[in-house]
């Protein structure tokens, strides 16, 4: 039986975290471990985007953890524990963390991503209007920019296609203007829809 078919049967064709029935896909719970046969869960797009830190956390959405943390499947328990730790500064999550039980192997697996450390906040690349930028987006300059080390002057309204994100700095993106790859501050761009 294929993994997707097995997960659909196990979950009743719904997200194993929030019970949504839309936009479901298989999520391989990291890190991959050869000693674990079942590492996957069936999750909706909203859960996946927040698990993988591609979207800001929505505390109201994750109230579902009060149910999913009791799931008999270890990968669901592990993801529930990790997400509760991202919200541990909120009273509801702290209460649930006090109640959740993971055996020693599951707890060790859950801790491997480091979600229990730090405050759980996510830094995302955002344009001047607060819209989240992702690699491959097209943006428009909202200000004339002089490119340092070049005679290039990028004019307001210039479209920059297929941007790249600077991974260690959420205030910068990379893009080509007149065939030259440059670094652009996100506060000077607007995402095109």
TrEMBL record:
Upper taxonomic lineage: Bacteria, Pseudomonadati, Bacteroidota, Flavobacteriia, Flavobacteriales
Keywords, comma-separated and alphabetical: Hydrolase
GO function terms (MF aspect): hydrolase activity
Official protein name in the record: Phosphonoacetate hydrolase
Sequence ranges assigned to domain PhnA protein N-terminal proteobacterial in this UniProt record: 6-52
Pfam families: YjdM
SMART domains for the chain: PhnA_Zn_Ribbon (SM00782)
InterPro entries: PhnaA_N_proteobac, YjdM_C
């Amino acid at each position: 039986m294929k993994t997707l078919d097995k997960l659909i049967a196990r979950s009743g064709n719904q997200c194993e975290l929030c019970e949504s029935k839309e936009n479901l896909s298989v999520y391989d719970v990291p890190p991959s471990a050869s000693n674990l046969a079942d590492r996957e869960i069936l999750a909706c797009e909203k859960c996946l985007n927040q698990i993988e830190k591609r979207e800001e956390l929505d505390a109201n959405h994750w109230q579902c953890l009060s149910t999913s943390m009791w799931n008999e499947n270890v990968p669901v328990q592990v993801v529930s524990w990790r997400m509760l730790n991202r919200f541990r500064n909120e009273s509801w999550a702290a209460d649930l963390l006090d109640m959740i039980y993971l055996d020693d192997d599951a707890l060790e697996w859950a801790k491997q991503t480091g979600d229990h450390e730090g405050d759980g906040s996510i830094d995302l690349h955002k344009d001047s209007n607060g819209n989240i930028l992702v690699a491959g987006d097209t943006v428009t300059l909202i200000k004339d920019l002089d490119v340092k080390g070049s005679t290039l002057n990028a004019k307001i309204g210039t479209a920059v296609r297929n941007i790249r994100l600077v991974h260690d700095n959420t205030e910068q993106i990379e893009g080509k203007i007149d065939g030259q790859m440059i670094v652009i501050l996100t506060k000077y761009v607007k995402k095109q829809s």
